[in-house]
Amino acid sequence: MFSFYTFAFVICTTFVSHSDADSIVYSITLQQYSKVEIGWTQDQVTQLIGSQGNVISQSGYGGPNTTTLQYTGSQSSSSATFYFQGSILSSKSQNGLDTTVCQITQQQYNQLEMGWTRDEVTNLVGNPGIVTSESGTGNTTNIAVQYQVAGSSYGRVSLGFLGGKLNIKYGYGFASIVNNKISFQQFSIVQVGWTQQHVIQFLGCPGTIISQSGTQDLSSQFTTIQYSGSQSSFPSIAFNFQGGKLYRKDQYEIDPRVYTMTQQQFLSIQIGWTRNQITNFVGSQGRVISEYVSGSANYTTLRYTAPGNIYGSADLNFVNETLSSKTGNGYFLNSNTINLQQYTSIQIGWTQQQVVQLLGGSGNLISQSGTVGSPNELTTIQYTGSQSSSSSATFYFQGSKLYRKSQNGLDTTVCPITQQQYNQLVIGWTRDEVTNLVGNPGIVTSESGTGNTTNINVQYQPDGKSSGSVSLGFEGGKLRSRSEYGFK
Ligand SMILES: *[C@@H]1O[C@H](CO)[C@@H](O)[C@H](O)[C@H]1NC(C)=O
Ligand SMILES: *[C@@H]1O[C@H](CO)[C@@H](O)[C@H](O)[C@H]1NC(C)=O
Ligand SMILES: *[C@@H]1O[C@H](CO)[C@@H](O)[C@H](O)[C@H]1NC(C)=O
Ligand SMILES: *[C@@H]1O[C@H](CO)[C@@H](O)[C@H](O)[C@H]1NC(C)=O
Ligand SMILES: *[C@@H]1O[C@H](CO)[C@@H](O)[C@H](O)[C@H]1NC(C)=O
């Protein structure tokens, strides 16, 4: 008997002290959350709640620091977040603190009109919904209200009110999605510039309004209507209207044809080529995944896939029918590799040629835009890490000069930081001060600029945790931002 109690006691104390050392939990109730008002000081907030909260992120770029604090609700997945500018609360949000079930039907959602007051909405729906975030005061008050879609386990509706008036509605998970089907041919006939009424009449079904924003005045309204392809129950078609006129259309899976491109063709295509030139060169016209008009220019995105390989696609972006950028992934990548030592020796300011020479290969062209050879040409190339295929290094060039580099997983040193150390960091500290406190320098994951405009990002691993990360941003040698997830 005696030994049993001793045993139980040891287990208990071990458990308690272990969880104490692991992380500090800052708790909040819905009632406390509701009492906190926009405009309060950070001191007022921490006094009311009774603890200081987790500093999820903090930054100070010349102006006043901004700080984001988070507290945990009674269920560990629920939380409240407070955002301060200087020491003044400018917005708050909650996730899961209020567990009231507030439903809305699709019919009610469809009836809501921009410009309605919160009372008008509440009267129609029959309940006030849950306020998930709030910012601003007086006529600039912005609140977000959430409802569950009746009859759907995952459907949600979000409403935004500015100065008391509905100015955005957004929803997903409606049953009507599967009933509004259109064919690829119908999609192709619809032209940018048509009125909303004309489009709906032509398609023969109203679609699902997934979002609408603006004021009561139609000319300021934006509306997005979704449809499914005739073979699909997945919403893969979207029409976007501004002031009642179609300005953009997108589709993902409804073009039944297959358009392929080889890796060699992808590499050969040059920024500045016309759509006709590319169609002739590649042998097919590509799948139009989006088309829109903005101002006097028109924009088109075409997608090609790799021959016989579903893990590769290339997107080509055109402005006025001229190629402005290209992006490849999967199959369109090649196998050049890089190690940490090579990565470290590459310096900001190097030419693209210097980088390619050092690494012995041209890497993967991730994206390219701007006129070739001009100072506004932007090129991003990526190399796979030599030790693991999930590691990589990315180089960003402007006018063929390296201005930023980043790496992911090339440096596998474990660099821990404790929650206590993280809490002690102060915006404005030098890198050396941070390194001295933490006991190790962390891993530099990205770097850009030179001299006093050097920007680096340093990453640490929350001590004793298998996931999570702490990210520190330094500018000109000084700590300018910090953020964490995973201590909780
Ligand atoms: C908000 O209120 C201020 C002062 O009360 C006023 O000057 C401003 O025009 C109002 N803005 C709007 C959008 O109503
Ligand atoms: C696109 O073409 C229109 C007229 O055809 C022209 O006014 C506009 O400047 C062009 N835009 C670009 C970005 O080339
Ligand atoms: C886009 O612009 C180009 C050149 O300005 C023009 O030839 C083409 O017809 C336009 N396409 C659409 C769909 O408006
Ligand atoms: C805010 O930033 C300044 C430097 O810009 C720093 O001295 C001050 O300690 C920072 N405040 C906090 C709470 O980190
Ligand atoms: C950075 O250095 C340049 C030139 O050395 C100088 O003109 C500028 O004032 C410096 N900026 C800061 C923020 O120290």
From TrEMBL:
<dbReference type="InterPro" id="IPR024221">
    <property type="entry name" value="BLIP_dom_sf"/>
</dbReference>
<protein>
    <recommendedName>
        <fullName>Jacalin-type lectin domain-containing protein</fullName>
    </recommendedName>
</protein>
<keyword id="KW-0732">Signal</keyword>
<feature type="signal peptide">
    <location>
        <begin position="1"/>
        <end position="21"/>
    </location>
</feature>
<dbReference type="InterPro" id="IPR037873">
    <property type="entry name" value="BamE-like"/>
</dbReference>
<dbReference type="InterPro" id="IPR009099">
    <property type="entry name" value="Beta-lactamas_inhib"/>
</dbReference>
<dbReference type="Pfam" id="PF07467">
    <property type="entry name" value="BLIP"/>
</dbReference>
